[in-house]
UniProtKB/TrEMBL annotation:
<protein>
    <submittedName>
        <fullName>Biuret hydrolase</fullName>
        <ecNumber>3.5.1.84</ecNumber>
    </submittedName>
</protein>
<feature type="domain" description="Amidase">
    <location>
        <begin position="28"/>
        <end position="430"/>
    </location>
</feature>
<dbReference type="InterPro" id="IPR023631">
    <property type="entry name" value="Amidase_dom"/>
</dbReference>
<dbReference type="InterPro" id="IPR014087">
    <property type="entry name" value="Carboxybiuret_hydro_AtzE"/>
</dbReference>
<dbReference type="InterPro" id="IPR000120">
    <property type="entry name" value="Amidase"/>
</dbReference>
<dbReference type="Pfam" id="PF01425">
    <property type="entry name" value="Amidase"/>
</dbReference>
<keyword id="KW-0378">Hydrolase</keyword>
<dbReference type="GO" id="GO:0018750">
    <property type="term" value="F:biuret amidohydrolase activity"/>
</dbReference>
<dbReference type="InterPro" id="IPR036928">
    <property type="entry name" value="AS_sf"/>
</dbReference>
């Protein structure tokens, strides 16, 4: 069954069926596991299937319903987590063999715990760039995750497994992390919805760190409704009412964010702005320096985090990760301090821009997913590494700690995506704009054959 545009949201539809007794949680979970086993060989999005534990939790959901008790708003909904979230009973590897001999986690990451309490069932851990350091999910230990829309192309990273499993229709929602674009980039290249919440809003307990001053965790899903529901539970709060989209001031980012993008992406952003009836263009200052600062901060913090282990076990690291971490560990302290000073300056200017608009629209990547055998993109007329440069539009935004909703444009052919950027704490306005774009058919996820959408016979 090919499923397009689940208007109610696949996760919410599953929960409604399970709560009403139309489907059992066990059948949903076992069907999804069977589907992953049958189809993920094409995509390599899943690193481990949590079969026995997932079925056991699904049985508890069904028992709760049979006893007449509330199983939670996501009852029986299967999901996957990037392999840097603790899942009780499992070793958290962060995509590396370096951690494989660690003891299993004794409890879930806080956000996984919250989702489990809401009835959702973790069924898989998902592929990623080693230690989340990359934009492509090319991993020397676990292999490359392939884009479900064209398996000859990259899924993006570092949360590539999380995006690809939603795009493939294997899972209705997943969790990823975003330091410099690791939710937004794969969401856009795979054509799914993703959210990087405001920095500091989500608890990071039980999440393997990369860059403490930039790390954020968030969901990916196939509809805005699912994304909003999962985000609300992860954040531990009651749903917040969305404003009327007509009251949300929307502007387009120009300058740096208008250069190097494909014609199709320009056309898509034009259509979004025309539909919203907005023509304001805002330019941020010194964006190239902002990107460089994010790069330096990431390298320095990441290198420092891993330095002691690199001294003992460097050859166990993915060679590409090892080289970048070692280079970061050797950065002079003065360079890091200067990057942090610039960060404060840039954040002030971004906040000034947000005084004139509630939501800023920008591309997520320069175009469609690069080919795996030609992992490069063109920037300023030069062919450069995709793994290092896919974050050209996401890294500068990370520096300011803003919430960003990645929206998949409705385009023919390979997916393209945009960033909806808000002020700190402005997620409700992002959801209002995203919902309007989905309603108007300008943005939509196009999952492949979705096993989780099959009803019990």
């Amino acid at each position: 069954m090919t499923v397009h545009g689940h208007k109610a949201g696949a996760a919410l539809a599953i929960a409604a069926d399970v709560r009403a007794g139309r489907r059992s949680a066990v059948s949903v979970v076992t069907d999804v596991i069977a589907d992953i086993e049958a189809r993920d060989t094409r995509f390599n999005s899943v690193t481990r299937i949590l079969g026995p534990a997932a079925v056991a939790q699904a049985e508890e959901v069904d028992k709760t319903i049979a006893a007449g008790r509330d199983p939670g708003p996501l009852a029986g909904v299967p999901f996957g987590v990037k392999d840097l979230f603790d899942v009780r009973g499992e070793v958290t590897t962060a995509g590396s063999i370096v951690l494989r001999d660690n003891l299993p986690a004794t409890r879930d990451a806080v956000v996984v715990e919250r989702l489990r309490a809401a009835g959702a069932v973790p069924v898989a851990t998902l592929n990623m760039d080693e230690f989340a350091y990359g934009f492509s999910t090319e991993n020397a230990h676990t292999g490359t995750t392939r884009n479900p829309h064209d398996t000859a192309r990259l899924a993006g990273g570092s949360s590539g497994g999380s995006a690809a499993s939603v795009a493939a229709g294997l899972l209705p929602f997943t969790l990823g992390s975003d330091t410099n674009g690791s939710i937004r980039i794969p969401s856009s290249l795979c054509g799914v919805w993703g959210l990087k919440p405001t920095y500091g809003q989500m608890p990071l307990g039980g999440v393997y760190p990369f860059v403490a001053s930039l790390d954020v965790v968030g969901p990916m899903a196939d509809t805005v409704e699912d994304l909003r529901a999962v985000y609300t539970i992860m954040a531990g709060g009651a749903p917040v009412g969305e404003p009327d989209v007509g009251d949300v001031r929307v502007a387009r980012l120009g300058g740096w964010f208008a250069n190097n993008i494909s014609t199709e992406l320009t056309t898509g952003i034009d259509a979004v702005m025309a539909h919203l009836g907005r023509d304001q263009v805002i330019e941020l200052p010194e964006v190239a320096r902002a990107r460089a600062s994010a790069f330096l901060i990431s390298a320095a913090e990441g290198g420092n985090l891993h330095l002691a282990r690199l001294r003992r076990r460097s050859m166990q690291y993915d060679p590409a990760t090892r080289g970048r971490l070692m280079a970061g560990a050797m950065l002079p302290a003065a360079t890091f301090v200067q990057a942090q000073r610039f960060r404060r300056w840039f954040r002030e200017h971004v906040h000034a821009a947000l005084a004139h608009a509630d939501v800023l629209v920008a591309p997520t990547t320069v175009g469609v997913a690069p080919r795996i055998d030609q992992p490069s993109i063109v920037v300023d007329g030069r062919t450069v590494s995709a793994r290092a440069n896919l974050g050209i539009f996401t890294q500068p935004i990370s520096l300011a700690g803003l919430p960003v909703l990645a929206a998949p444009l409705s385009v023919d052919g390979l997916p393209l995506g945009i960033q909806l950027i808000g002020a700190p704490g402005g997620e409700a306005k992002l959801f209002a704009v995203a919902a309007e774009l989905q309603r108007a058919g300008l943005a939509a996820c196009r999952p492949l054959d979705a096993g989780y959408a099959r009803k019990d016979s």
